[in-house]
Amino acid sequence: MSPADALVARIRAGEPLEGARIAALDLRGRNLSGARLAGAKLAQVRLDGADLGAADLAGAEIVECSFDEAILDGADLGGAKLAMSSLQKADLRKCGLRATKLLMCSLPGADLGGATLVETVFTKCDLAGASFTGASLAQVHLDASSLPGADFSAVVARESTFARANLREARFGGASLERCVLAGADLTRATFEGATLENVVFSTANLTGMRFSKRMVGCFFQHAFVLPPGFEPTGEVDPADHALVLDGIDLRGATLERSVLSGASLRGADLREANLEAAMLDGCDLTGARFDGANLFRSTLKGAKLPGADLKGMRLRLVIWIDADLAGADLSGAHVDLSMFQGANLRGANLRHAVFENMVLDKADLTGIVVDRTRFEKVGFEKLDMRRFPFDGLTMRACDFSKCDLSGMKIVDCDLSKSNFTEADLSRTTLERCVLSMVTAKKTKLDRANLRGVSAKGAFFGEATLEGASFREARLRYATFTRARMSGAVFLDADLRDAMLDEIVAHKTVFQSAKMVYADLSHADATGADFGFANLRGAKVHALKDDEANYAGAITLLQRTTDEGLLRAETLNPARGA
């Protein structure tokens, strides 16, 4: 009896052969099902076409063996090590491959459908056309392996890696991949249609002709690329030489939540009804892309190109548009809040009926924007040149205009209540019939400004310059003008009841017929001021300097005049007024 026949007889008799050494035997086509070869060492054994169904090869060491078209259905290869062996078209269905290591093995056309692969390592293996249909992959490594045309349909893969693998024309339809790495892989014409991808890394991968899944959550595409049409690489492709061009891609209704597509070209992409929550689209070219019904909550589009984008009626919350190009964009009826537009280009954008709140627009280009019943609330415009901004009739409550240039403007019927104009320039500006209640205008330039008839109850003008300004008929009850410079200003018929006018410089200022009941003019310099017919009942005029002032017809009943004791204490205290 030949050694091969003797071995087969022992296997068929059910004899355990754990740890056996088997070398240079020809066992092609033999029935070895159920063989008990755990821990065995096989070298240069030919097992082509053999039946090893349900065989136990756990922990075996297999070198330069051939299993072409062999049946290993249900076999256990857990912990086995295979090197330079051939398993072409082998039947590995439902095979146990837990912690199995395969080095430079050839498995083209192998069937691993339904197999359990856990911590399995394929190093530089040839798996062209192999089928993994329905298999379960957990912490499997297929790095640098060749898998062109491989079928991963309905695979469930977790924490597995395909880095630098050849996956050209591979099929992942209906698969579920979670926390997998395909960095540097060649996915030319691969298909992921119907797949669910979560936290999958595609960085530096070749995605030329790839058909995308519409469920990609937390996927990373930065530095992935697409080769230009007709380009045939002659060697290794450098991702830095190419861009991720996905122009015209259909991602309608897709889920791209938390995915990173920064730098991609998505010109004309269909993103209607897409879920882009927390997606990173920084630097993307989205010219002509469609966003109807898309969810952009918490997404970032820093430096993105969206000229003429149709965003009308959308809810844009917590979106970052820093340095984005939105020239001519349609934001009519949109509700934008908690977003950032610093440095964004909004030239000619349509903002009719839109609502902007709790956001920043400083350094943005707002030239030629179109507004009509647009509402801004708690919006930052800091340091902007707003001399051409169309304020008239707008609601702009609690906005930040600090250090903005609004000089020489004419603003009519604008609600600016609670806004901040600290150190802004409103010199020569007209604010007719505007609402300025509770505004902050500390150190603001309002020289020769026209604020006739404004409603500025409780406004703060501390240390502002108001020289030559007009506050005729203005409603300024409870307003603060502490240390303001208002020489030559006109407060004719103004309501200054309970106003703080302490330490003001008001040379030749006109307070004729003003209501100044209980106003505080402590330490004010009102030299040459005109208080004719003003109502100063109960006003505090402690240490008021009013040389050459006119009080003809004024009501001064119950005035609180200089408190000499207090004045002496103030004189002795060098910190007063600091």
In terms of topology, how is this protein built?
Elements: H1 3-12, E1 21-23, E2 41-43, E3 61-63, E4 81-83, E5 101-103, E6 116-118, E7 121-123, E8 136-138, E9 156-158, E10 176-178, E11 196-198, E12 216-217, E13 315-317, E14 335-337, E15 355-360, E16 375-380, E17 395-397, E18 410-412, E19 430-432, H2 564-572
Please describe the structure with a list of short key phrases separated by commas or semicolons.
578 residues, little secondary structure, Pectate Lyase C-like, six-stranded parallel β-sheet, 19 strands
The main sheet comes to:
6 strands, parallel
**Helix segment tally:** 2
The low-pLDDT segments are none
CATH domain topology of the domain at 381-578: Pectate Lyase C-like
How large is the share of residues in beta strands?
Answer: 5-15%
Mean pLDDT: 94
* Secondary structure category: little secondary structure
Rg calc:
40 Å
Global morphology: rod-shaped
In CATH, what is the homologous superfamily of the domain at 381-578? Answer: E3 ubiquitin-protein ligase SopA
For the record, the CATH class of the domain at 381-578 is Mainly Beta
Number of strands: 19
Helix content: under 10%
The CATH architecture term of the domain at 381-578 is 3 Solenoid
